[in-house]
Amino acid sequence: MGCKEALGLFPDYLDGSLDADTCRRFEEHLEGCAFCLKLFESYRKAISLFRQAHLREIPVDLSERLRGFLATHLKF
């Protein structure tokens, strides 16, 4: 699994909606890629902060802007 694919799986991994094989490959990628691991930890922390603020989901516009930013600024 490459970084670009792993990045796209962050939300599904946290939601627990990945199939077993994809979950395993995602976790293996994070174990071997310090860059993606750091991004994932930041993403997980942001989700946690949103939940602590009693927001059930990230607002759609914010999610789209975040994905757009990551896609534009992270070159794989």
Describe this entry's structure for a reader.
It is built from 5 helices and no strands. Helix 3 crosses helix 4. Helices cover about 75% and strands about 0% of the residues. The protein is globular and about 30 Å long. It has helices at about 5-10, 10-15, 20-30, 35-50, 60-75.
Describe the secondary structure blueprint for this structure.
Elements (H helix, E strand, L loop, with lengths): L2 H6 L1 H6 L4 H13 L1 H19 L7 H14 L3
Helix pairs in contact: 3-4
Quick overview of this protein structure:
With 76 residues, the protein is mostly helical. Helices cover 76% and strands 0% of the residues.
| Largest sheet data | none
> Roughly how many Å apart are the termini?
12 Å
Number of helices: 5
Q: What is the strand content?
A: under 5%
* Strand segment count: 0
* Residues in helix, %: over 70%
Query: What's the rounded overall pLDDT mean?
Result: 86
Category from helices, strands and their pairing = mainly alpha
- List unreliable stretches of 5+ residues: none
Global outline = globular
Tell me the domain tally: 1
From the alpha-carbon coordinates, what is the Rg to the nearest angstrom? 13 Å
Helix-strand pattern: HHHHH
Keywords:
single chain; 76 residues; mainly alpha; 5 helices; 76% helix; 0% strand
